[in-house]
């Protein structure tokens, strides 16, 4: 059964869910399979369909993977915000505080999340040209977003995290993924949501992001 949402509502209310994940309710395998079936209808470069979805629900495996997630968060990594990023990040009072609070909640409760989804793609992009990078990421990102939209339509919450990045090799080993051949692209907690009344996020004005005919 899916929620009664218009396409615009679905697109504008599929949020990064952290604190409102239901940590007590298992997610049926059939729902996850439906979401994956829809995800693999996404566009894929040259129809190569190199995507994979590793779903973790076993309690012992979730504890192992959750420990990797926690340790990965403490490693830092990634480029720091630029001077142009900061005004956008703090455009609306309280937004970053809520994000940080949600991340702490997820860190503390990751072992209780009923399912993890780790999307992956064949091929690695270290040192690749912009063309090759865009072809690779352009084939997995639409599929993952389709998965997240399908999950939202079924009352499930997701949040795209890159926590796998700093410890990707360790996570790949834990999941039996051939690291040299397959890239783990995200780490997505998955659960039913506590309530389904999500609202559009407050974003910076269109004028700051829309460029017509030239930059």
Q: Termini separation (Å)? A: 44 Å
Largest sheet: 5 strands, antiparallel
Average residue pLDDT: 96
The total of beta strands comes to 5
Query: Ranges with pLDDT <50 over ≥5 residues?
Result: none
The share of residues in helices is 25-40%
- Taking all Cα atoms into account, the compactness measure Rg is 18 Å
Order of helices and strands: HHEHHHEHEHEE
The helix tally amounts to: 7
Shape: globular
Note the beta-strand portion. Answer: 5-15%
- Class from helix and strand fractions: alpha+beta
Question: Any overview of this molecule?
Answer:
By secondary structure, this protein is of the alpha+beta class. The chain is built from seven helices and five strands. The protein is 40% helix and 12% strand. It is globular. It starts with 6 loop residues before the first helix and ends in a 23-residue tail after the last strand.
């Amino acid at each position: 059964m899916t929620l009664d949402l218009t396409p615009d509502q679905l697109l504008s209310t599929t949020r990064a869910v952290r604190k409102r994940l239901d940590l007590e309710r298992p997610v049926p395998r059939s729902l996850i399979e439906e979401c994956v079936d829809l995800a693999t209808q996404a566009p894929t470069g040259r129809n190569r369909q190199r995507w994979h979805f590793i779903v973790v629900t076993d309690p012992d495996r979730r504890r192992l993977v959750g420990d990797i997630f926690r340790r990965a968060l403490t490693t830092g990594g990634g480029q720091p915000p630029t001077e142009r990023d900061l005004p956008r990040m703090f455009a609306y009072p309280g937004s970053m505080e809520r994000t940080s609070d949600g991340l702490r909640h997820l860190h503390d409760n990751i072992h209780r999340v009923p399912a993890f989804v780790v999307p992956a793609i064949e091929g690695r992009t270290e040192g690749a040209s912009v063309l090759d990078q865009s072809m690779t990421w352009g084939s997995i990102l639409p599929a993952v977003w389709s998965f997240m939209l399908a999950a939202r339509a079924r009352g499930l919450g997701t949040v795209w995290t890159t926590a796998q990045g700093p410890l990707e090799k360790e996570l790949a080993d834990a999941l039996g993924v051939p690291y040299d051949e397959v890239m783990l692209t995200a780490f997505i907690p998955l659960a039913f949501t506590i309530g389904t009344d999500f609202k559009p996020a407050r974003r910076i004005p269109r004028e700051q992001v829309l460029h017509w005919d030239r930059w």
